[in-house]
Amino acid sequence: AAHVADLAGLGYRSKGAMFDRMRELLGDGGEFTADNSKGEYAFVITKYGYDVFFTISTICLVLAVISIVFLEPKFFRYALLTTAVVTFCFTLNFFRDPDRATPSGDNLVISPADGKVILIKEVNETEFLHAEATQISIFMSPLNVHVNRNPTSGTVRHVRYVSGEFFAAFEDKASEKNEQTIIGIESRRGKILFKQ
Asked: Are 9 and 177 contacting, i.e. CB atoms less than 8 angstroms apart?
C-alpha cells in the first residue's frame, strides 16, 4: 500500500532552501538518496532559521539592556525585560533542532514531523503514487519542533515546489492552498509522497 504524509502546508522558512538544494541535486533526470539515519552533526538551532532567530535574539538583547539600564519605574523595566525574555525563549523553542535517535530498518516509515495526527483517510493520489493511498495529516503547534525529516530511506524521484498562500495550518484549505514542497520517495517497501 502506498502512503501519503501531508504536513498541511505549514509555510516553514526551510522550504525554499530545501527545494533549491533538492532540485540542484536532482538536476536533469538525476536522483537524490534520502536517508533517515542519524546525522554526523547536531544543530541546536536549525540552520534554516538562523536569520530569524538571530534577528529576534538581537532585538531581545537590545530591549533587555534598555530595560535594565534606562527604564524607570521598575514596573516598566520588569515588563519590558519579561517580554524580551519570553520572546527569546519562544523563538529558541520554535527553531530548536534536537538530535533524534530514530529506529533503523528498511521496512519503517517514521513520522516526518512532531505534532498531532489530525486526519487519516483514504485518497486517490494522482501526482506521484497514481494509486489509492492512506493520507496522514500532522498538525504542528508553535510548541512542536519545526524541523521536517525524511520519513523513510530511499531515492527521491519527485520534487515539486508550490508557491501558495499562508492560511492558518489548521484550516482545511491550508493543505491544498498553502506554500508547500511535495516530495516523492521510492523505498524498498514502495513509494511514499509527503508534503511540507
From this structure: yes
The torsion angles phi and psi of 176, rounded to 5 degrees, stand at -95, -35
- Chain centroid, CA 105 distance in Å: 23
**Residue 15 near residue 196 (C-beta atoms within 8 A):** yes
Chain centroid, CA 2 distance in Å = 22
- Give the pLDDT means over successive 10-residue stretches in the chain (196 positions): 35 43 47 44 74 95 94 93 96 88 78 88 94 90 87 91 86 83 90 91
Q: Given CA atoms 93, 144, 163, 45 in this order, what sign does their dihedral have? A: positive
Q: How far is CA 101 from the centre of its chain?
A: 18
The residues pairing with 190 across neighbouring beta strands, listed in sequence order, are 187
Answer yes or no: pTM beyond 0.70. no
DSSP string, 38-86: PPS---SB-GGGHHHHHHHHHHHHHHHHHHHHT--SHHHHHHHHHHHHH
CA 181/CA 33 separation, integer angstroms: 17
29 phi and psi angles, rounded to 5 deg: 80, 5
Cell of 168: 492558518
Q: Which three three-digit cell numbers place residue 177?
A: 492552498
